[in-house]
Each structure stands twice: as C-alpha cells, then as structure tokens.
Amino acid sequence: MTTIFNVWDFLLILLYAIIPLAYIIPFALMAVYAERKISAWIQNRVGPNRTGPIGLFQTTADILKLMQKEDIVANGADKKLFLLAPIVVFIGSYAAYAALPFTSVYIGTNINLGVLYMVAISGFVVAGIIFAGWASDNKYSIMGSLRSAAQLVSYEIPTLFVIISIFAITQQFNLRELSEMQTSNILNWGIFGFDGLGYKRILLIPVLFVLMIILFISTLAEVNRTPFDLPEAESELVAGFHTEYSGMKFALFFLSEYANMFAVSGLVTAFFLGGYQSPFGYLGNLLGLSWLVPIEQVLWFLTKGILLVCVQIWMRWSLPRLRMDQLMRVCWKYLIPIGFVCFIYITIVMYL
Amino acid sequence: MELFDLFFYLFASVIVISGAVTVLNKNLIYAAFALLILLSSVAAMFFILGAEFLAMVQILIYVGGVLILIVFGIMLTGQVKSVPMRENFVYLLIAAVFTGLLCGLLVTGITARPDMTLSADIASTPIKMLGNLLISKYYLIFGMLGVLLLVILIAAAGMARNNKE
After folding, report:
1. In the predicted model, is pLDDT for residue A104 greater than 50?
2. Quick one: CA dihedral A135, A140, A143, A148, positive or negative?
3. Which residue of B41, B59, B70 to mutate against A (max A Cβ within 10 Å)?
4. Which of A70, A86, B19, B26 has the greatest count of CB atoms below 10 A from its CB?
C-alpha cells in the first residue's frame, strides 16, 4: 500500500496511446483522397477536383457530411450489437498500432511478442465484422460476414508460416529488435537477408522474397482489400457487412479499414523492408545531431508504409475480385504449401 | 492499492460478469459477444500476470479462431434469438455441486502451496526458454498434442471428402 496510483504515469500512458490516433485520422483522409485520385488516373479519369485545390478537401467534406447524417438503425436490426460492432472493429484495428515500431524511440508497447500480437489482435476486426453482419438483419450483410470469417481463418495460416520462418532466422518476435537488426543499410534489410548471417544470406534471399509476397498477399486478404474484398463485394452484396450502416458508424468502418491497411503495411515493412531504418545512414548521425535520427526514422517508416498502401490501392484498381473457391484455392493450395516449404528450407539453411 | 491491483480486479470482475452473461443469456449472439469480452479479459489477465505468450495465444486461438467458428456456426442455425434453457431444479443442483467442488479444489490447491506464489512484478517469460521447455521437459505432451491435431486434420479432410461424393 505504499505506492498509490501515479497520475503522471497514467497520463503518460494515455499520451502514448493517443499518438497513433493523431496519425490515423489525417492518414485515412489522405488515403481516401489518394485512392480516388489513383483510381482516376488508372481509369483515365480526372478524379475529385472541385473541393479545394486539386480536390484535396474532398474527403474532409465527405466526413463532415457523414457526421451530419441521420444515424439510421434498420427496423429488424439488433440495436445493441449494431452499435457495438463498429466499435469492436475499430478497437481491433487501433490496437494493432500499439506494437508498430514508428521509431526506435516511440513504440506503443515494446512487448517481446509484438509480431504475434499484431496478428492476434486482427481477430477482433473479424469478430466485429461478423457481429455487424448479424446485427444488421440483412442477408447481404450476413453473407458478407460469413465470407469474412472464412477468409480470415484461412489466411491467418500463411501469415503465421511467414512469421515462424522469420523467427527461425532472427529468433526475434520483438518488432523493434527486428527493425534494429536490419541496420540502416539497404543491403541488411529483411528482403536481402538479415545482417550478420554470412554466406547463408545468398541461400536465403530467394526464399525471403517469396515469403514477402506471401505475407503481403495474406495480410491483404486479412484486411479485406481487393482482390480479396469478398466480404463487401459491391457487385454482389450491395456493400457486404456494412450495407445497413450510415453516418458515423459507417465512417468508423471506413477509418478502421484504412487504419488496417497501414498497420498491415507496417508489418510487412518491419519484417522485410527495414522497419524504421533508413536505406543509407542518417543525416542526424552525419551532422552529429542525435535528436534528428528518430524524426528521420518516423519519416522513413511512414514513407515505406504509405508506399505499400499505394501498392494496395494500385492492386485494387487493376485486379478483378477473386471468386470464393478461387480465394480458398489460393490460400490452401498455393500459399500454405509454398510457405511450408520455405519454412522447412529456412530451418535447414539456418541449421547448416 | 497499486495500478496493478486495480487492473487485476477490474478484469476479474469483467470476467465474472461476462461469464455469467455468456451462460445465462438466451440470445446466442449476445452470449457469443459476452464470450468475446470474457476471452479478451482472460488474455488481459494473463498479460498483467506476466504471461505474455499465453495472452497472445489466447487471443490468437480463442478470439481469432474458436470464437469466430462459434459465431459462424450460430449464424448458420435457425433459432438464435431465444433458445429454450433447461432451468430445472435438478440441473441447478448438479451445477451447484460441481461448481462447489471445482471452487474447493482451486482454493485448496492454491492455498496449499503458498511458496508457489510470485510477486507482482515478475519479468515476462522469455520465449526462447518456453520453446526449450516445450521440446525438452514437456516433449511427450507436446508431441501427443501434435498427433491429436494431425488426427483431427485427417478426420476433417475425410469428412469433407465423404460429403462431396
């Protein structure tokens, strides 16, 4: 009974927890705008260009519109779950940011099992989607959430294969240590084999490239992005699990989708693209200003993450949606066996 | 009263309440939602007790796998909103007896070995140590569980094939 509840510690924890939110909201606004612009360029259109300079305020205006909208709850819907489901979805996608290594200085919680945590917490997103679909009392919504469940349960397996393969190489589940291992030299990044492995790197490089593709595909499927957006397939299911949602609840789904896209990109970055490390030294180290290094690291991490988000957007507008059986075939007949073979190969190489 | 105690009792009460809702609610989806809260609170409890790996696995397997499969099953069944419950005195009696037995077992088990308790600020188990223990001291159990999972996998594949033909 000596140490009483320390208010300052608690406020510090709260501050740590709020920082990602200050990033997610502007990011989501810009990502929606980027998605529209990129899709327009891909389809040879102009895209939003009326609200603000080159349409920059389009999504802000959309959010303002969504906030003013009447919050409609359908008659047959289950009101409590209808309200709770978007919150659960957002909790799932926001909680993932707790383990993302933004810099060597700031990381929400530097737990030893950050990697596992990020994969595990995505279960909340799917649970929320399922409850949303059921609570809507709409057959399209239920179809969407059933698909989402089947999809997540399958695609978690290749993700975990990649994770245990990387664990076999680095023996590290801590995302910061993992980024620290990939020094600020592009040749030491995960995709080119990790630092300090000698000749084994030459044997590992082809497998690591394959593993990166597997991780990218399977995490893409976990966040329900095209070509794996079966849960919300707009040509078949109206809008899937969020058909009945409008106003702020819909905005919450939207926000968590974009937050998820970045979280997943951050995971791929931390594994294979050096995490927050710069590809070539730091300006701060060169000038002897040590406070500059973390800022540069943030910039590098965000750049890499946003580039991967752009790849996701690019894929969305260039690939058609998979059919359900094709989706399952990709996972069970290609990704899992390839991941398994890669894992066996890596363990043999590391044993040599 | 430290922060640790505060969170411990907070999660403990959440576990008890959501557990009661899981068992007593007639709406299966509500029960499933309470189960979601229950399982994640148990994970949080493992977390504050320093068992990080157990907490992660709890979320990964129970929330990400078991719960989703349960809800998947519920959504494919017809009667969800009001399931008839057996509220006979006999069932209550049996339940009370077994709950009491389990409670007594746990209490005596925990109080019999006061030397087994650990202080609140335990360091989290290094994952490497855990892995070494799994393939050395507990290898028999670990291997048997692997065989069990393999059997389940083969059985599931067999059932899926039979249904197709």
Report:
1. yes
2. negative
3. B59
4. A86
